[in-house]
Amino acid sequence: MAREGDLPVFAQGLERIKLALRASCLPASRRKRPEAFLDTLHEWNDSYLSSASPVAGYAKSLTEFGYATSPIHVASPDQLTAVAEVGGLFSEQGITELRRACYQLEAASTTSNWIISNRTRAATQSSTLIRGMMNSRAFLLAVSRIAGVPLVPHPLLNARSQVNYFYPPETPDDKAQIGMWHTDGTSFVLNILLSDPGEYEGGEFVYFEGPVEQFDTHDFGGRLRKSKVRACGDAVYIYGSRVFHGVRPVTSGRRMSLVLSFHCPYTVEDVNTFWHLASDDGVLSTLRPWCALKRDLFVPAPEQYRQLGIEPISFVEVAAGREHRSIKGHG
Ligand SMILES: O=C(O)CCC(=O)C(=O)O
Ligand SMILES: [Fe+2]
Predict the structure, then answer these.
(1) pLDDT in tens, 280-319
(2) 240 Cα: distance to centroid of ligand 2 (angstroms)
(3) Which of 116, 107, 85 is nearest to 7 (CA)?
(4) For the chain, which terminus, N or C, has the lower number of CB atoms within 10 Å?
(5) Which DSSP letter does residue 90 get?
(6) What is the CATH number of domain 13-324?
(7) Nearest CA to ligand 1 atom 4
C-alpha cells in the first residue's frame, strides 16, 4: 500500500484560476516546440497490437466507484470503466517501436510546475508512429472496449497525447518530478507505461477508489490504491475526469509513460474546463483551441470517423467485444 499524503494535490477552484493567470505570462506555446527531427518516421502497423485480446486485471466501473449517475447520457455508470489495469495490448515489436518514438520525443520535453513536471505534449503532431496508432481503427476499437463506449482521438491536440518523463532529483535542492494528485481534463485516458520494472524505483501510479467528492488526502478511508501495472507496454486505463490519481516520485532510474486521451463522438459532452486548459497554457493561448473544441464536439459521429478515414465504431461492436473477450463487464 502506498504511503498516504506524500503527493501534493494540484490546484483546484480559485487557485487554478490564479495559476491560469500566472501561466498567461509564460504560455506553453512559447516554450520549446517539438521539431521534425524528433520523428522516427516509422509508420504504425496494426501488427504492433498483440494478436491475443488484451487482458484486464483489476477493473472497476463508475458504479463501483460510487457514482450513481453517468457523466454522459449515452452510457450508464455501469457500462463505463472507472479503472482497468490492462496487459498485453501491444506486441513485443509494438512496445519497442513505442519506446523508440517516446525516447526520441524527450528532446522536446519541457519542465514546469504543472501536474506532471516533465513532459512532451502533442506527441501525435511530431510522431508518425503515435499519430498512426491513434488513427488506427483496430487500436481505437481495443481502447473503446476497455472504456465501454466507442471512442475517437480527443479533438484537442494538446490533450490528445503526451509523453511523461520522471527522474529523481539531481541535486538535494531539486524538486522530485512527480504527478501530483489530480483529475485529468479529459475523461477517457490510457496511461501506457513504457519502462521496464528494472529501469526505475518508485514512480507508482496511485489512485483513489471513490468519487471525487470524497477525495481527501488526510483520510483516504482505506481507498487509496496502487496500480499493479509494472510491465513495459502495460497500461492503466482511467475515466480520468472522475478518478483522482497521481504518480509517486521516482527514487532512482527513469520512468517513461505515454498518456492518450479519447472522446466519445456520440455525445457533445466533454469535461475539459477552460480553466484546466488555461492553467497549463495561459488564458490567451487557450481561447482559440477552446473555441475549436466546442465546434469539433458538434460534428456528427459518422463524420468524425469519416474524417479519420475509418468505418464508425458502434456501441454494438464495443459491447460484443466485451462479452466475448477478456474485457468483460466488471465485477
Ligand atoms: O505517467 C503516468 O502513468 C500517468 C500520468 C498522468 O496522470 C497524466 O499524464 O495525466
Ligand atoms: Fe492524469
Answers:
(1) 778 888 888 888 888 888 899 999 999 999 999 999 999 9
(2) 6
(3) 116
(4) C
(5) B
(6) 2.60.120.620
(7) 191
